[in-house]
Amino acid sequence: MKVISSRDLNQDVSSAKRAARLEPVFVTDRGKPTHVLMSIETFRQLTGHGETIVDLLAMPSSAEIDMEAARAGGAWDRSAS
Predict the structure, then answer these.
(1) Cys-Cys crosslink for 42: which of 16, 31, 38, 53, Cβ 3.0 to 4.6 Å?
(2) What is the radius of gyration, based on Cα positions, of the chain?
């Protein structure tokens, strides 16, 4: 378990995020734990939640759709009716 101060977190967020991929990172304020930074995978395991529809739609690997081509003469073309 990694512990960092809130000051260190503010100075190097990237390092804290890298550490959180491996294990939860406890953030302290004046020596007392106040927050926990963890990967989304760890969070989902702890809570029992899988990916939501919003997560799936936001994925960069999802197929790109050419909206103009889909509209032109297709089901979305209102001028064709």
Answers:
(1) 38
(2) 22
